[in-house]
Amino acid sequence: MMQELGLERFSNDVVSLDLTPPSQTSSTSLSIDEEESSEAKIRRLISEHPVIIFSRSSCCMCHVMKRLLATIGVIPTVIELDDHEVSSLPLALGEEYSGSGSLAAPLPAVFIGRECVGGLESLVALHLSGHLVPKLVQVGALWV
């Protein structure tokens, strides 16, 4: 009976509840579609998440971005890109984000509401100018 409900009992009387509906597969919006190009995947992720950071693994500036957003009350989606995916980022952004077909700021790059804010310096400037919180509220990433 417990397994049918997605419950699992552990030896120390702790019960774990699996909230994944049985009809769903284990894939999520962050899943990798083998036929989806890196460019298409990046575009999809930008459109699906109100606040998303693209970074390389072990990026200290990404950590600072996450801490700043967490201090405000926002937990961003962070995507660590491989080298071949990093080269796809400017292609995915194209003219609509940077105006020149190349990323305006180096990685990490933060997007808020499908708009490229830029790197850490741009995020901090947005925060210090008082425009970050209203922008986060506008895209539904923060409730005040």
Brief sketch in words of this structure:
This protein has helices at 38-48, 60-72, 83-86, 89-98, 120-128, 132-138, and strands spanning 7-9, 15-17, 51-55, 77-80, 109-112, 115-118. The chain has 6 helices and 6 strands, in the order E-E-H-E-H-E-H-H-E-E-H-H.
Explain what you see.
A hairpin with a 2-residue loop joins strand 5 and strand 6. The chain has a 4-stranded mixed sheet with strand order 4-3-5-6, with helices on one face. It has a two-stranded antiparallel sheet with strand order 1-2. The protein is of the alpha+beta class and 144 residues long. The protein is 38% helix and 16% strand. 21% of the residues are buried. The protein is globular, with a radius of gyration of 18 Å. Helix 1 (38-48) crosses helix 4 (89-98). Mean pLDDT is 75; it is low at 15-21, 23-29 and 95-105. The longest helix is centred in the middle third of the chain and has 13 residues, at 60-72. It has helices spanning 38-48, 60-72, 83-86, 89-98, 120-128, 132-138; strands at 7-9, 15-17, 51-55, 77-80, 109-112, 115-118.
